[in-house]
Amino acid sequence: QVQLVESGGGLVQAGGSLRLSCAASGLTFTSYAMGWFRQAPGKEREFVAAISGSGGSSDYADSVKGRFTISRDNAKNTVYLQVNSLKPEDTAVYYCAARWAPGHIATMPLQGVDYWGKGTLVTVSS
Fold first, then answer.
1. Three-state SS for 90?
2. What is the share, in percent, of the chain residues with pLDDT greater than 90?
């Protein structure tokens, strides 16, 4: 049984930082590209960032490039999202995602996600 468990969300002022974590279990972690999506109230779920199983490739949404950094620790089966310079428009539930993709593939279309976490809420106050 695959489980993705997010943590690290919270309330932060604009300009602040958070580190989101996603602990994975029940899957061969290095065979999966891992990613983060987010969904703001009244909006569709959108891609934020992804990293390949090897950790050697990554991909970001244009809206977060230069502010967010995705990383993974394959020894701990955990993926991280460091979020800096937060803006009120970053307020959303952030979801961890896994896509079976051995090697260096870091792309993660919404329809290609195999497993989802339950999400962690990030609220950015102005």
1. helix
2. 94
Q: What is the pLDDT of residues 24-37, one digit of tens each?
A: 999 999 999 999 99
pLDDT, averaged across the chain: 96
The answer for residues whose C-beta is within 8 angstroms of residue 4's C-beta and 6 or more apart is 22, 23, 24, 96, 97, 98, 115, 116, 117, 118
Quote the CA–CA distance of 23 and 6 in Å, as a whole number: 7
- Specify the DSSP class assigned to residue 55: S
| CA pair distance 119, 65, nearest whole angstrom | 21
Residue 57 dihedral angles phi and psi, to the nearest 5° = -130, 150
| CA dist 99 → 33, 40, 88 (Å) | 5, 22, 29
Q: Is the pLDDT of residue 103 over 90?
A: no
SS3 74: coil
